Amino acid sequence: MRILLLGEYSNVHWTLAEGLRSLGHEVCVISNGDFWKNYTRDISLVRKQGKLNGIKYLLKTYSLLPRLRGYDIVQIINPMFLELKAERIRPIYHYLRRHNRKFFMGAHGMDAFWVDACTREPHIFRYSDFNIGEQKITNAYTLEQQKDWSNTPKSKLNHEIADDCNGIIASMYEYHTAYKEKYSHKLTYIPFPINTSIEQEKKYYNKARKIRFFIGIQKERSIYKGTDIMLRALKRIEKEFPEDCEILKVENTPFHQYTRYINDCDIQLDQLYGYSPGMNALLAMSKGKIVVGGAEEECYEILGEKELRPMINVTPSEEDVYQKLKWLIENKEHIVQLQKESILFIKKHNDYIKVAKEYLNFWNSK
Fold first, then answer.
1. Can you give the residue range of the structural domain that contains 361?
2. 344, 361: one domain
3. Is residue 201 included in any domain, yes or no?
4. Which parts of 79-226 fold into alpha helices (H)?
5. In the chain, how long is the greatest CA-to-CA distance?
6. What global pTM score does this model have?
7. For the chain, N or C: smaller number of CB within 10 Å?
8. How many distinct structural domains can be found in the chain?
9. Residues 6+ apart with CB under 8 A from 32
10. How many DSSP H helices and E strands does the chain contain?
């Protein structure tokens, strides 16, 4: 099949493309590399700041359209799959819809259905980016997203594409739940793909040295992601156990540099408010790292996983993060076993060939 993947989040589309190509399919990935992360793509579509650059970006996008016809499958990462206003994306969506066979939308991140699921009452989730129990989280970022995705052109486009497309794919329990009520007939859950063919040097923890904790911070989204809270808990651990703890911290680091830090750590902290691990956490697990982050029972249940529990789940509180990190310090004998279970988990659920086959099955069923 000829497959077009538009947009990028955390290397999802490029990794999926690698799996699909291994199965003999022709794939084109077009994206901006997910901004400063600079992920690999076949065609780079980056919008630079400034009005003139905005015009150039629009012209480049339109110049590409004749080449984006005749695909068996087109999939977008998100309803806002281009760096344009929703009003400008709408005619492009309809052009792609008319000139290709099937069209699918990813539910992998911020969109109207996610904002609605997190802010409606009664709450669907025990906690999320927007609430902890009945308490609303009202930082600048969440308020901006609510304003952006509630009864706006972006939300209307999101609903329009969801209604019109052939199917919707979610790769985390949370996003699947956000779409399930209205679109169960065209919705599926498929785990994120991780390229397990790359031979990784497994650097398991050695008791002779300090435990290396890694935390990657997106400066503009630190509060939203909860890394500010996780870092505070980690610094408490470093102060209390200076002979046992070492912190590796980076901010807004391109992907190729980010992976080097993952290689050197034992434990990665990620996604405080999540129920499920994201791509960065899964990548770390594939390299034999323990992830401390979102790993509620719901994320295992949607996978049908009954035995493996390699992740250290934390709830959105500094004290809970602190206690879980302290447990790891005080129970070092469990670290290597959890690291090995992380690798088994990824091979079982996230292998990129297995995931690519799941996508093909779903696409062909619609």
1. 2-193+351-365
2. no
3. no
4. 86-98, 112-119, 140-149, 153-164, 173-183, 222-225
5. 62
6. 0.95
7. C
8. 2
9. 8, 44, 45, 46, 47, 83
10. 15, 14
DSSP 220: G
Our CA dihedral for 86, 92, 93, 95, rounded to 10 degrees, sits at 160
DSSP state of 150: S
Nearest Cα to Cα of residue 291 among 318, 309, 306, 273: 309
The pair phi, psi for residue 266, each rounded to 5°, is: -105, -35
Please check whether residues 330 and 357 belong to one and the same domain: no
Q: From CA 170, how far away is CA 320, in angstroms rounded?
A: 28
What percent of the chain is modeled with pLDDT above 70?
98
Query: Which tens digit of pLDDT belongs to each residue from 278-328?
Result: 999 999 999 999 999 999 999 999 999 999 999 999 999 999 999 999 999
- Summarize pLDDT for 339-358 with one digit per residue, the tens: 999 999 999 999 999 999 99
SS3 of residue 145 by DSSP: helix
Rounded Cα distance, 94 and 90, in Å: 6
Non-local (6+) Cβ contacts of 68 within 8 A are 4, 30, 74, 96, 99, 100
**C-alpha dihedral over 159, 161, 162, 164, to 10 degrees?**
120
